């Protein structure tokens, strides 16, 4: 089941995504005493995170997991996703735990460590976005829909790397790392609920292909249509190419 909502702008989109996600976190805490969540990064998550950290949630009952990270990029770099999440989330709410991806150590060993940890924490809510190339996390097309490994080493395609440069994280495409550690598609799809925030005109084609094209590894985010509980938040720009707008 995918519920799609179109907002007037990215700020409204972010607020709605954060409120719904916060409700789902509270539901998990009420049900089992704690919640396990996944957090994404990037420009699409700015407003959502800004509002999420202000929700009335006992963050000491929340375990958070990192979605993806560049290989070889130091945490002090402005584009570091560890730095992003510490500044915009964990340093503000101090959750019970936050499992970060360390892209500065042996990536194969890091994937094993992360997989073991997330295997002990079934995810209640995953906060994700969709890339300009339709990627989900850093699973660029053609994404691996079959691997059961929770975290994998991936190569970033040119369109993905150009998106990172275009968002202002890097001065040139040559500065964008070519490899990353990413949560796998199957691991994301194991989440009980998924909140997907996708603002901006530059995402319109990816949104249209995700919702109206075939479900295929060449459009990685299209797999979300097979999940039983997805809330997709769009704005007028990102939804502009849809043939059938949600009522």
Task: Describe this structure as you would to a colleague.
The protein is of the alpha/beta class and 247 residues long. It has a domain at 2-135 and 224-235: Rossmann fold. It is 32% helix and 19% strand. It is built from seven helices and ten strands. It has helices spanning 10-32, 46-52, 81-93, 107-119, 158-166, 185-189, 204-212; strands at 2-7, 35-39, 62-66, 68-70, 97-99, 125-128, 151-155, 179-183, 193-198, 230-235. It has a seven-stranded parallel sheet with strand order 1-10-9-6-2-3-5, sandwiched between helices. Strand 2 (35-39), helix 2 (46-52) and strand 3 (62-66) form a beta-alpha-beta unit. Helix 1 (10-32) crosses helix 2 (46-52). The chain is globular, with a radius of gyration of 17 Å.
* CATH topology tier name of the domain at 2-135 and 224-235: Rossmann fold
The main sheet comes to: 7 strands, parallel
* Order of strands in the sheet with most strands: 1-10-9-6-2-3-5
| Cα Rg | 17 Å
CATH class category of the domain at 2-135 and 224-235: Alpha Beta
Low-confidence stretches: none
- Calculate the terminal CA-CA distance, rounded to whole Å: 15 Å
Entry keywords:
247 residues, alpha/beta, seven-stranded parallel sheet
């Amino acid at each position: 089941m995918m519920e799609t909502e179109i907002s007037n702008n990215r700020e409204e989109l972010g607020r709605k995504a954060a409120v719904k996600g916060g409700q789902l976190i509270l539901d998990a805490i009420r049900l089992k005493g704690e919640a396990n969540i996944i957090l994404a990064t990037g420009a699409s998550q700015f407003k959502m995170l800004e509002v999420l950290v202000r929700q009335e949630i006992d963050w000491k009952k929340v375990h958070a997991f990192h979605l993806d990270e560049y290989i070889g990029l130091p945490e002090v770099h402005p584009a570091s996703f560890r730095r992003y999440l510490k500044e915009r989330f964990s340093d503000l709410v101090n959750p019970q735990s936050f499992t970060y991806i360390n892209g500065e150590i042996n990536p194969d060993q890091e994937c094993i460590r992360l997989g073991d940890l997330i295997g002990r924490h079934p995810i209640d809510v995953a906060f994700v976005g969709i890339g300009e190339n339709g990627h989900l996390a850093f699973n660029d097309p053609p994404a691996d829909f079959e691997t059961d490994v929770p975290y994998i080493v991936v190569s970033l395609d040119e369109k993905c790397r150009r998106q990172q440069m275009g968002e202002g994280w890097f001065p040139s495409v040559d500065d964008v790392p070519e490899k990353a550690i990413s949560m796998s598609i199957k691991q994301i799809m194991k989440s009980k609920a998924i909140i997907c925030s996708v603002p901006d005109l530059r995402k319109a084609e990816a949104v249209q292909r995700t919702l109206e094209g075939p479900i295929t590894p060449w459009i990685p985010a299209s797999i979300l249509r097979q999940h039983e509980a997805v809330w997709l938040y769009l704005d007028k720009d990102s939804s502009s190419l849809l043939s059938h707008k949600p009522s």
